[in-house]
Known about the structure:
6-stranded mixed β-sheet; binds adenosine-5'-diphosphate; 9 helices; Rossmann fold; 281 residues; 4-stranded antiparallel β-sheet; binds magnesium ion; alpha/beta
Amino acid sequence: MITVDNLNFSYTRKPFIESMNFAVKPGEIFGFLGPSGAGKSTVQKILTGLIPTYKGSVVVNQTEAKKRNSDFYEHVGVDFEVPSLFEKLTGRENLRYFASLYRHSLPIEPLLESVGLANEADKKVMDYSKGMKSRLNFIKALLHAPSLLFLDEPTSGLDPSNARVMKDLILQQRKSGTTIVLTTHNMYDATELCDRVAFIVDGTLCALDTPRNLIMSRGAATITYSYRENAQECQGTSVLAETANDSCLQRVLQENRLLSIHSSEPTLNDIFSELTGRKLQ
Length: 281
Ligand SMILES: Nc1ncnc2c1ncn2[C@@H]1O[C@H](COP(=O)(O)OP(=O)(O)O)[C@@H](O)[C@H]1O
Ligand SMILES: [Mg+2]
């Protein structure tokens, strides 16, 4: 769906993105995970044809991004980080207006219903909460049933219940076959939503794989346990794959002195720090 080959880009004289390569497969959720300022939005702007001054090849849905015309946007939906809506118009008026920009568009009512805005559709957007604006902005990106959807920090700033709604909507889109490229600095969102994740720092991709492979390929899973020792509770830790070598654990097991045991895999955050030397937030 997307092939990026030797992408180079700079805002100033100093190179920012150098020799970046990756590909996005049809139907997958592909995520860029990185801290603020890493270049996530910049890459999305290049992919969506908003920054045409790059070097190298960026083919999106069979079109070189810098050569896109309005046809390109008939198949591409974009949900920007900050909602871009007309505040003085109602939700429904906003959708009607944006729908008029496309050759084909979906009926508005079911879209409003899908995000729980049917009863709020005739209120002005200026009276919407942040979560409502985010949901409206999201269905605005779906109006023309795009086959490729770009979401920039889709859950950023949302409370947990609105973030849950947004994540379910994203997963529903993938189920219906839409290819999704999203950015996030939230490792939980990346782990839950993305089929593949690209770590990005300072305009550079540091790793690219499934969240599971990234987690399993690095850092071993560990167990922590507590046990009784002279009427006191003591703690121990061990690498999961090497519990046979932990003589303390073996002894407390034999003597039925174990009080609790938990296993924990490294998180994407741990792997991110290990690979890039940087923290996500
Ligand atoms: N229009 C611009 N002109 C100059 N520098 C910019 C511009 N937009 C972004 N940058 C810089 O590029 C870097 C990456 O920004 P951005 O892509 O927005 O990061 P992210 O989305 O990962 O937070 C940052 O250092 C930012 O200050
Ligand atoms: Mg950004």
